[in-house]
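Researcher: I'd like a candidate sequence for this fold, 129 residues long. If you have to choose between options at a position, lean toward the conservative one.
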C-alpha cells in the first residue's frame, strides 16, 4: 500500500506525505478511513515515529486528515482546503512537475514515453466513472 525507499534522495518525510496524498488522490484512502497509528506505521516502514507524526501533522494542516478521539487519525477530505493564495499552490505543483520531467529526461525517457505516462496518470486520477 505505502512504501518508502531509504536509498532515495527524496527525504523520507516527503516520500511519506507524497505517498499518503497519492493514496487519497487515487481513492484508495477515502473520507472516514482510519490510518495506522503513528508508532505502527513507523515500525511497519522502519522509520522514525517523529517522521510519521510530522507527515500526519502536515496532512492535517492541509485539511486532509484529522485526529479523532477514540479513532486515531482519519481521512476527513479528499481535496485540500484552501490555505493560501492559489498562485503559491500553482507554483508548488509546477515545480514538482518540472522536477519530475527533468528527472525523466535525464533518465533517458523519450517525450512520447513521458506523454503516455502523464496521460495514464491523469486518466487514473481524474476518472469519469
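Model: Candidate sequence:
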Amino acid at each position: 500500500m505505502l512504501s518508502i525507499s531509504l536509498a532515495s534522495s527524496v527525504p523520507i518525510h516527503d516520500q511519506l506525505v507524497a505517498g499518503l496524498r497519492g493514496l487519497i488522490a487515487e481513492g484508495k484512502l477515502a473520507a472516514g478511513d482510519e490510518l495506522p497509528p503513528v508508532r505502527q506505521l513507523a515500525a511497519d516502514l522502519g522509520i522514525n515515529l517523529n517522521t510519521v507524526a510530522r507527515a500526519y501533522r502536515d496532512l492535517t494542516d492541509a485539511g486532509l486528515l484529522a485526529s479523532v478521539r477514540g479513532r486515531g487519525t482519519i481521512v476527513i477530505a479528499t481535496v485540500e482546503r484552501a490555505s493560501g493564495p492559489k498562485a503559491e499552490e500553482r507554483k508548488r505543483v509546477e515545480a514538482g512537475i518540472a522536477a519530475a520531467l527533468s528527472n525523466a529526461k535525464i533518465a533517458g525517457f523519450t517525450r512520447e514515453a513521458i506523454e503516455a505516462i502523464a496521460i495514464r496518470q491523469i486518466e487514473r486520477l481524474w476518472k469519469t466513472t
